Amino acid sequence: MFLLQVVVVVLLVLGAVAAMVLQAAGDALQQGRRESVVAAQTFASSPGVADALRSPDPTAVLQPRAEEARKRAGVDFVVAMNPAGIRYTYPYQREIGKKFVGNIGPALRGRTVVEQAGGPPLPAGQGTAVQATVPVYDAHGKVVGLVSAGITVRNVAQLWMPQLPIILGCGAAALVLATVGTRLVSRRLRRQTRGLAPTELAQLYEHHEAVLHAVREGVLIIDPEGRLLLANDEAARLLALPPDAVGRPVAEAGLPEPVLRLLESPEPASDEVHLAGDRLLMVNKRPTYPRGGPGGSVVTLRDSTELAAVSGRADVARERLKLLYEAGTGIGTTLDVGRTAQELADVAAPRFADLVTVDLLDAVLRGWEPTAEGWRHLRRAAIGGEQGIVPTYPVGEVITFDPDAPQMRTLREARGVLERDLREAPGWRKQDPERARGALAGGLRSLVTVPLRARHVPLGVASFYRTADSPPFEPEDLALAEELAARAAVALDNARRFTREHAMAVTLQRSLLPRGQPEQDALEVAWRYLPAEAGVGGDWFDVIPLPGARVALVMGDVVGHGLHAAATMGRLRTAVHNFSTLDLPVDEVLGNLDDLVVRMDNEEDTGDAAADHEGVGVTGATCLYAVYDPVTGVCTMARAGHPEPVVVSPDGTVSCPGVPASAPLGLGGYPFETADVPLPEGSQLVLYTDGLVENRARGIDFGMKRLRRALEGSGDRTPEQTCQAVIDALEPSPSLDDIALLAARTRVFPPSRVAEWTVPPDPALVPTVRAHCRRTLREWGLEESGFTTELILSELVTNAIRYGSPPIGVRLLRGRCLICEVSDGSGTSPRLRRAANTDEGGRGLFLVAQFAQRWGTRYTPRGKVIWAEQALQDGAPGGQGTPPVDFLLEQFDDLGP
């Protein structure tokens, strides 16, 4: 009704507004016609208009007058034009000189034209609604021009706007009255009918009757005098009421005495249990009017005999659901196969079984793919419950199951096997008769064994045992055991696959890391590498011997984890070896590594890698590269985003050398700063990755303080002892990140093992160099190497004098090998080649390459150094072998082949 009233009021308001608008529009149109004609005729009759139209510049004379007339008359435009319709005036200057829009034919014939037409933009709005055009006569009565005046639609439409609030106000008042009236009438009706229509009242009564007699709970309504007003079908059945009980006093209904006393009492009752015949009834009683009223009561009756059985089954189902929930949250908390198997045993015992055993294929424990060939040989992975009640195989023992054993049957048939009474299970007793007799004597009675399968592949079996003190397993218990096994199997398979992938990644990473210490004289080195349990990372380290008895130390960390990070680490380690072989400066090595990482990122961005490739997108790496020279005792270092190394002096003082921090690898375009750090003999240089000093719980500053404390007093320790002390003190968690640690104790070449002198650039002084060499080797006890060393030095010095530039220097180093170095100020590197028969030179470097174990060139800031190494064994010349004489002579044979 209220909506109908609202619709009527809205329609009336809309009708009134429409009538007013139409009337106002008509009146406004008529008024606009009159005002347009008056304005046009007044301006046309103004003195001087006709003369102005004939003047040389009508616009200059008429435009100000037209604007003044437009404003005084309240019209939107006054246009003066010539007989051809060309405008001389207009509110906008840009429209002057254009053709007038409208019908000017009648006006040229002396008539007044009133019309509706559009035109150029006006100050009052777009287009012209009403315009009047009149002729302009000269003194002889000839039409010399036209004048048009007009009013836009917006202006005439404002005539009806003042009346709109009155109409809307009347409509609003009508709506308010309709709302108030409807509210008052509705409140009265709701009080009388409780808010229900007659049809709804009838449906409510029918529904009430249907529900009342359909529920499985008895309902009685008793009036204040104790008469039975209502009894549904369930109450009549439970109390065996006669058909005419309704309307009679409850005392005449033949009810049992306890129930009758309860119904006649004015006190309420809650869940009181009374016996009615062979039924145990739960009775509740409440007053009909809880807040006071005429009186009476409502009684509900429930048959607790059936509810007890239903409640028992519900409790069992609830316990099973709770057990499955705890299995979902408690099994598979780690990615360890053994731990996951133990979690299954702990969840099932003792709530589901008294004893639980989990036996897995040996391949599953190792992370391999299981096969049917290993079914008979399972390894005990976990035991849950009271192990002392019966003799069982211990954890870790391999069990060979009999083909008729329940465990083998469940593997073959891929379903659970229930042995309700183990005394009647010959296959189980046949597995181990002596152990079976002891188990039966200990009270073992019932067994459920189920396969652990994932992706249709068997992983092992789970066996659930109950003793004589517990009820035997039933078929529904078998279903629960299979559900537990299914959930555990998924977690076991995830752990197995992780174990396999983790082992593969660790194997790959360890294969890419150094397997042994290279032979070198400069450092005593030890290291530790701890892979992360959650996935290997890209940490790596290296010890690389360099020419001149120098050694390069490398410590790096690739961003990310997994196989991709390990493979990337291998690529970077190989690149460092290659750059070190070229004997590049420290900053250039890091610069080349930076370019390599950028190229690797670009390769990943091209989309050629697989979409599911682990760790796609190498975002960078950190690296510390250091070169130690045992002759000078100086270590040149640079680090690209890597933690700063720590130096332990011989007296145990711990300090950081202050190596400048540069940008990590992979950013591109950033320089790398180096630092020359003097290291006294016996100092220890400690390199590490951030996994040693940083984790999610503690920042790197806290980790660095702990590392310093662990290294204090390590001056007399060996590098091996230093590494172990750091690992023991920091107790790093391998599960968070990889950890690489390297400790190197410095050695310094004694002056007695170093010989060097300067050579003037005169070929005649080469014999003097050989003499110096011969004398030095005699002092070192290396006379047997004299000829070879003199030959090598002679050729290298001759090349330096002939092709190099001063200063020229010679240095001999005695260590694990005999090193000959010739330096000069030229940057030109010699090149080994096969000399032709007609070439005069080109055979010197060939001889050097044949007699030396290794040779090469390295560049210095002042030129280059050509070096050659000869192997020594226990300080004596090694038996590296002399090239065949015939082979050497062929290089100097003047005869052709």
Task: Explain what you see.
Its main location: membrane. It is found in: Cell membrane. GO terms for molecular function: ATP binding; kinase activity; phosphatase activity. Residues 204-246 form the PAS domain. One of its GO terms (cellular component) is plasma membrane. By secondary structure, the protein is an alpha+beta fold. It folds into 5 domains: 1-153, 2-Layer Sandwich (Beta-Lactamase), CATH 3.30.450.20; 210-304, PAS domain (Beta-Lactamase, 2-Layer Sandwich), CATH 3.30.450; 336-503, Beta-Lactamase, CATH 3.30.450; 517-601 and 619-746, 4-Layer Sandwich (Phosphatase 2c, domain 1); 752-875, 2-Layer Sandwich (Heat Shock Protein 90), CATH 3.30.565.10. Helix content is 39%, strand content 24%. It has 24 helices and 32 strands. It has a 6-stranded antiparallel sheet, sandwiched between helices. Strands 17, 18, 19, 20, 23 and 24 form a 6-stranded mixed sheet that branches. Helix 22 packs antiparallel against helix 23. The chain is flat and about 135 Å long. Mean pLDDT is 81; it is low at 608-615 and 891-897.
